[in-house]
Amino acid sequence: MFQRPHLQVLKNRMLEDRRFIQVIVGPRQVGKTTLIGQLIKELDILSHSVSADAVAASNTIWLNQQWEIARQTLKTQKASDYLLIIDEIQKIDNWSETVKALWDEDTKNNCNLKVLLLGSSRLILQRGLTESLAGRFETTYMGHWSLQEMNTAFGFTPEQYAWYGGYPGSASLIKDEIRWKHYIKDSLIETSILKDVLMLARIEKPTLLKHLFEIGCLYSGQVLSYTKIMGQLQGAGNTTTLSNYLNLLDTAGLLRGIEKYSPSIIRKRSSSPKFQVHNTALISGQSEEQFKEIQNNPAAWGRIVESAIGAHLLNHSLTMDYELNYWREGDAEVDFVISKNKKTIAIEVKSNKASITNGMKQFQKQYDPQKMILIGADGMKWQDFLMMNPNDLF
Questions:
Q1: Are residues 112 and 151 part of one domain?
Q2: Which of 150, 221, 255, 280 shows a CA-CA span of 20 to 30 A to 287?
Q3: pLDDT tens across 108-156, in order?
Q4: 111 shares its domain with 234
Q5: CATH number of 60's domain
Q6: What is the value of pTM for the model shown?
Q7: Residue 157 and residue 201: Cα distance in Å, rounded?
Q8: Domains identified in the chain, total number
Q9: CA 273 remoteness from chain centre
């Protein structure tokens, strides 16, 4: 069975002396539960694994009970250590306060109970960690699968990856595209929105949030002002509501509004967002077109390729700690700008033949970036770019 690199990281940490709560966070269907199964087999440690997915949000007693089961098993088995694994921990109200109290009690009593927590909402989980568990945890982010992983595990070509995306659970369905689309819409999109967004945050206009997601997928790779977005949505409320909803969709690993590149934080935050899906399956899963049809439409296929490049940059930014933006001044535009440690790299994606674009010339004149990368016919092949780690550009 294919193993993601996160497995070895977690294995090494679990073999260390008890120091930190280990936390795995990432979108749905990226292999977190599978990773735990692999980890248990790799470790020679007794463990107790449970999920809070179907537990009532107010049931903190359940959390105490699971912890006590682990404690008692550790004691009765006279084991040197024990591993407690809790999936979807963010579903329990005030989970972080309860975990803090139990963890500190074990520390005080020299109880060698190691703890691994999993969650699918980056925002909700991080909020609980920073509010109550400061200094007690380490996080591991598991993002969407890369082309390299999908190619190794399932033999995906770059073209298949651009269209079908990086959901391992759907890989076996791509030969029946209608069935694949139903799986993406019903098991991934609906579940992520209903369980990871609507149930974990106060959403006054759930229909608006769903429509915002649909429009964001449709316009992935394009810049739209909030005013323009409001014109396409009924009952859209105000720009603050839309911005908050877009942020929630981002933390669920679905859709981000990329900000405009600017040395000024104020100008950056007030910019119009560039929609970018985290996984291109979110576009094609809702599209009426099929894989063979889309490749015969150069303009539409070019947008898919650009979204695949954007998703690749976005997912790596979450683990490599570089910032992802776009840039536009008038008619001059650069598709993506990544920056880290005061180094800036401009990236332009062109499906047609083009050398140096007007946007790249203007950006170079204003900001003098470290590198200017052209992806497309006259530059680096987009297939090759998807196989590399963007952090290596710095």
A1: no
A2: 150
A3: 999 999 999 998 766 566 666 767 788 899 989 999 999 999 999 999 9
A4: no
A5: 3.40.50.300
A6: 0.90
A7: 38
A8: 2
A9: 18
